[in-house]
Amino acid sequence: MKFHDDQRILGIDPGSRITGFGIIDSMHGKTKYITSGIIKSVKGDFIERLKLINESVQNIINEYKPNIMVIENVFIHKNPSSALKLGHARAAAICATFKSDISVHEFSPREIKKAVVGTGAATKEQVQHMIVSLLNLDGVPPEDAADAIAAALCYCNHKAVQSSLNQIAGKEL
Predict the structure, then answer these.
(1) Could you tell me if 15 and 89 are in contact, meaning their C-beta atoms sit under 8 angstroms apart?
(2) pTM over 0.85
(3) What residues contact 167, with CB distance under 8 A and at least 6 apart?
(4) Which of 154, 65, 143 is nearest to 105 (CA)?
(5) CA 125 to chain centre
(6) Which residues, 6+ apart, have CB-to-CB distance to 158 below 8 Å?
(7) Catalytic residues
(8) Residues 6+ apart with CB under 8 A from 101
(9) For each of the chain's 173 residues, which pLDDT tens digit applies?
(10) Sheet with 68-72, side-by-side order of all strands
(11) What is the DSSP string of the chain?
């Protein structure tokens, strides 16, 4: 499978109260920051918050037209209720892609941190610092937005490595 050079990637850091998003373009091996932010769904009952996440992600998709979405996998929480709520928030964001031709990819928080910072145990501050450095940003995005941008960058790194390995394998055949 060939890695397509021109892609608009939407990263999502899901949360039942704050969902981060970040959009980057990947063109010819270079990444360009487009936008990022957070979706605050702190008011209302849980179903209303999920609806807000879904509608907000749909609006982002309609405005920026990404062709890839990258979202964090659910990690094990000490509190099973928190893990379930996070899973619902992820589903609300993923369902927003169903009316669009968007490919959805998932990575664990450790994979994302390792791809951007170099260690899967990186702090949120380290992720923010690397996002600013890698994309030459003027300001520091909020933590959840930085995590979403990191997810998008993780996808770029993963696809670039996969493409290189495919080229090497093709030469050896």
Answers:
(1) yes
(2) yes
(3) none
(4) 154
(5) 17
(6) 107, 115
(7) 13, 72, 144
(8) 67
(9) 334 568 999 999 999 999 999 999 998 878 999 999 999 988 889 999 999 999 999 999 999 999 999 999 977 667 888 888 999 999 999 999 999 989 999 999 999 999 999 999 999 999 999 999 999 999 999 999 999 999 999 999 887 656 655 667 666 54
(10) 30-40, 18-27, 7-13, 68-72, 103-107
(11) -PPPS-EEEEEEE--SSEEEEEEEEEETTEEEEEEEEEEE--SS-HHHHHHHHHHHHHHHHHHH--SEEEEEPP---SSHHHHHHHHHHHHHHHHTTTTTT-EEEEE-HHHHHHHHHS-TT--HHHHHHHHHHHHT-SSPPPHHHHHHHHHHHHHHHHHHHHHHHHHHHHHH-
How many Cβ atoms sit within 10 Å of the Cβ of residue 171?
7
Identity of the amino acid at 58: Q
> Tokens in use for 93?
């964001």
Write out the two tokens for 173.
């055949």
What does each C-alpha distance from 130 to 49, 86, 112, 134, 154 come to in angstroms? Answer: 30, 25, 12, 6, 12
Give how far the C-alpha of residue 44 lies from the chain's centroid of Cα atoms, to the nearest Å: 25
